[in-house]
Design a protein that fits this description.
Layout (H helix, E strand, L loop, with lengths): L5 E2 L3 H20 L6 E6 L4 H16 L3 E6 L6 H12 L6 E4 L9 H4 L14 H8 L8 H12 L8 E5 L6 H10 L3 E5 L6 H5 L4 E4 L17 E4 L3 E2 L5 E2 L4 H4 L5 E2 L6 H21 L9
Parallel strand pairs: 1-11, 2-3, 2-4, 5-6, 5-7, 7-8, 8-11
Antiparallel strand pairs: 9-10
Helix pairs in contact: 1-10, 6-7, 6-10
Length: about 290
């Protein structure tokens, strides 16, 4: 980053959430319960997906959370995947469930996620979780969407009264993030592929969140001077790296702050998944205590 564009790094924020998850895990074991257990269901041979699952597994092991992977064939029928998710939902030893994408052809993540018990839906994929989130009721938010808000909080960037343009309308980031931002008294515009003159819309925002899955989509022309930019993009590059949805070189010196890729939203997302799993385990061990629900 140039001297005039601050870097919204996620390492410190992520460390705080991992510490919270570890404290919960250790307390549950001290109380005679089981350590929190997360299960990731994978039905793909995608290498970037495999890398992500390995990173979650390593992070979980470091803080006392068990993380198992259920690997299904990359051509698994939707019914097979749904049955596996239902079985895990009924397993009392499992506290958190993630359905990893991409999925086999013909399989719908939105449809299959309905088989994940809401109390174990630590990545907020079940439509019931999304509905509760929209209604302002307790639910686990999709971790990436929540990570955006938490990252801004960690860097002392207030949301109340600010205008935010969210570029992308997926159920993983864009739509749930809009609800989280509204809950924090921000004024939100959700942009998408049919938005006429995207740059005109984003230039009117104090904060721009790029979550469209298109490398380099957001450039300096999309920003008002001094805007804050959060880059959610994780687009693979030819050399095996990652690049974001923001053209970082273009916006340096224009944006007041920009989250890096990698190292911004990503670490916070992983840490929140572990925190959600620990919270789910705590709720299962202490169902009478409503304060431990998401």
């Amino acid at each position: 980053m140039s001297d005039s564009t601050a870097s919204l790094t996620g390492a410190e924020c992520a460390a705080g959430f991992r510490a919270e998850a570890q404290e919960i895990a250790e307390r549950l074991v001290r109380e005679g319960g089981a350590a929190p257990r997360l299960v990731v269901v994978v039905a793909t041979e995608d290498e970037s997906s495999a890398w992500y699952v390995r990173s979650i597994t390593r992070a979980a092991a470091r803080i006392g959370i068990a993380c198992d992977t259920v690997t299904l064939p990359s051509d698994a029928e939707p019914g097979v995947i749904r049955k596996q998710l239902a079985t895990l939902s009924d397993d009392a030893s499992v506290h958190g469930i993630i359905l990893q994408t991409p999925l086999p052809p013909g399989a719908s993540a939105a449809d299959l996620a309905g088989a994940i018990a809401p109390g174990k839906d630590v990545d907020g994929a079940n439509p019931l979780s999304l509905g509760r989130l929209a209604a302002g009721l307790p639910a686990f938010a999709p971790a990436t969407a929540e990570a955006v808000v938490r990252l801004l909080d960690a860097h002392g960037l207030a949301l109340a009264g600010r205008t935010v343009a969210v570029v992308g309308r997926s159920t993983v980031v864009g739509k749930p993030l809009a609800h989280l931002l509204l809950d924090r008294d921000a004024t939100v515009t959700v942009c998408h592929s049919r938005t006429a003159d995207l740059a005109a819309v984003t230039r009117g925002a104090d904060i721009v969140v790029a979550a469209a899955g298109r490398a380099g989509l957001v450039t300096a022309e999309h920003l008002a001077p001094g805007a804050v930019v959060v880059d959610v993009g994780t687009n693979p590059t030819e050399d095996g790296g990652l690049t974001g949805d923001v053209d970082a070189d273009s916006v340096r010196g224009v944006a007041a702050a920009l989250s890096p890729v990698p190292g911004g939203v990503g670490p916070v997302t992983t840490a929140l998944l572990l925190r959600h799993t620990a919270m789910a385990a705590e709720a299962a061990q202490h169902p009478e205590d409503t304060h431990v629900t998401p």
